[in-house]
Design brief:
This protein is mainly β.
Amino acid sequence: MKDPLCLALATLFLLILSFLLPSQAIGQDKKKEYKYPQKQLKALRVQEAPQIDGVLDEAVWQQAQIATDFIQNRPTPGPLETHPTEVRILYDDEALYVGAIMHDVAQDSILRQLGQRDDLGNTDFFGVFLDTYNDQLNAFGFFVTPAGVQLDARYTSTGEDWSWNAVWDSSAKLQGTDWVAEFKIPYSAIRFGSKPEQVWGLNFMRNRQATRKGFFWNYVDPAVDGFANQYGKLVGLKDIEAPLRLSLTPYVSGYAERYPYEQENGGGIGFKKDINIGGGLDVKYGINDAFTLDMTLIPDFSQVQSDNRVLNLGPFEQQFNENRPFFMEGTELFNKGDFFYSRRIGGAPINYLDVEAEEALGYRVVENPGETRMLNGTKISGRTQSGLGIGVFNALVARQYAVLEDSEGRRFEKETQPLTNYNVTVLDQSLRNNSYVTLVNTNVLRQGSTYDANLTGMLFNIANKGNKYAVRGKVALSQRYFSDSTALGHFYNLGFGKVSGRFQFNLSHTVESDTYDPNDLGILFTNNSQSEEVNFNYNFYQPFWKLLNLYTGLGANYSRRYRPNTFENLVLYGNVNGTFRNFTSAGLFFNLEPVETYDFFEPRVSGWYYLFPTNYNLGGWVSTDYRKKLALDVEMNYRAFDENNRHTFNYFISPRFRVNDRLMFVYSYGSENKYDDIGYASSYVETEGDTERQRIVFGRRDVNSVSNTLSGSYIFNNRMSLSLRARHYWSRAIYNRYYQLTPEGLLQAQSDYDGNHDVNFNAFNVDLVYSWWFAPGSQITVVWKNAVLEQIGEVDTHYFENLSHTLSSPQSTTFSVKVLYYLDYLALKKSLSKS
């Protein structure tokens, strides 16, 4: 390990060197510290609402107070803007109105690439942030680009959520060398308390893409922890009330599918067709001025993006991204603490059949659905005037059945998923100084004899008055209720650190008991562990030398088993990344495991472990300037093990080409190569007389994976788009030798093992989506999908031969059309009263 250790130490030296950069650079950094007082803007009440046309020609705009003198946040935090921004705010009994003028030097300097909703691309934009409860933790964000593309997001202590969508109005226009943005934000789109006079947190942001500069009205210091705690104030809002918030979004959909199936009596592959026409309804109701009920009845998720499936040879399940709108929008409160993994709802049945086990019993599996069907979902969420956020999420999943056939050809159904209710309840109290305390409960109730589950967790962040130091923690108790017993498990994490400034650090202690299991409604890969972690960061926020910024970090993690209390792992890690003055960003990272560690999960049998060899991992990445028509992202890493010739080399290349402001393509190529990889192959029980011995077989294998993804979009206008995503993933595993795992975690050669575990895996998906927002909150989508998923034991050795075989394999094809129409009670009432 001398060479790997030297390489890791060399990287460590570079990181330490970045901590000790010349005093001149640090001195310059200190000289450029900026301190600005908190700003305040007064809104002007109007009797007649302005027309939202991107032209601030109504006289009332000239009477409003002006917010200007924006302050740069990136790439150089602190200086005032040189091209002024002017913002005014009006309000009436219905909405808040924002008018902004962005002065520039020429129209050519105003970049305005078209994109889909919530997709910025290469463009300028203007945004407004509203902390309506003034708790300095939670906020709403509304944005528009010069091309009129809308974006909106929710902000919490855990970050920003771009999946949240509201119904509001905006317009943007070019005027000479300037561009103008005009917003109408109805009170029905936001939440606020009931007070005679409101004081809200307020900030504005302008992005000037030609120079890659971002500006805020109230200074946002990147060295300070938090975002909403760095807003200014909006005053002057008097006698406004939250309206009756009631909207219905009915939908109708048509769905046609053609999919392969295995015919009886060796008849080969046949195809079935399924045509379905249906409908459903989404309801949004304001229970009071702060709380909202969201409900979906008979949801249709047929149009969501296809999952990125991969060959999974490891001991843990694959985690998928959430693409279903109901589970993405407005769920930021339910995701606090990471106790909620929404893909459990509608995922694989809990009693999904083991096909080989059923065949061993003499049954043929005719149908074995891999997903469950959600009947309805409900969300209630809001925040009181005292800063208490309350959220209740509930979903009901229908029974699911597999179809089996016995040796005499008789078919019958076997339940794989009982009727199941999922529930998440959250209480989140905002405190001063960017602090909070949150209580979370997740619960799963299943009809019949299948066990139920419950988890109760709490998390907190308590910062000092200056928001420089914070104590953080998370604790949880998991429970599984069986017919004759209850399984309890616990988890906790406690940490303390410096969270603001150039130099930051964090110390943490984590314990996960051997019985802690949140996976009925959450996701956790490993438990039975206790660990100590320390990390240090030193960041340069001001430009120096050839860099605009630089972020460095060093850390170590030491872990032991919870039961028994034995050593498990030691990891040293570090990273350095920054952005150069030409806006190319780059980074380096390393991981080092300098001693043999213990892998208790790869053997797949409780009580066994594999003695994992010492290893190191070095890598880096580069991302070029996205303003250019052609940009490139590259990443690679190399990992070497002190075991045979075991090593891994992965790389990723992704060029992106912007043809014009409407058409863009992104291609991604990834290659993962594991040579002499060691992993689990199979296990069995060997009987000798009255003695039974557990046998676990490991294999030495080469695993090569290739992923090709092409994404493209053509944007007709700010409401209509056509997008394409095609992905081919190919992975092959070729086993060269087999071993038997000993109770001491070592491998003994097993030359007489006659198993074959070679795998050739292909996943091919094409998603073509046409989307048209024909009215506020109303949309027509047309989606065509094509998919191949195949796993066989005969391995192809050439990519194009494998691709040809994949494309000629039986494919599933779907075509769907969906129409949503947004109906707002107040707008409908007003329309009826006029008629």
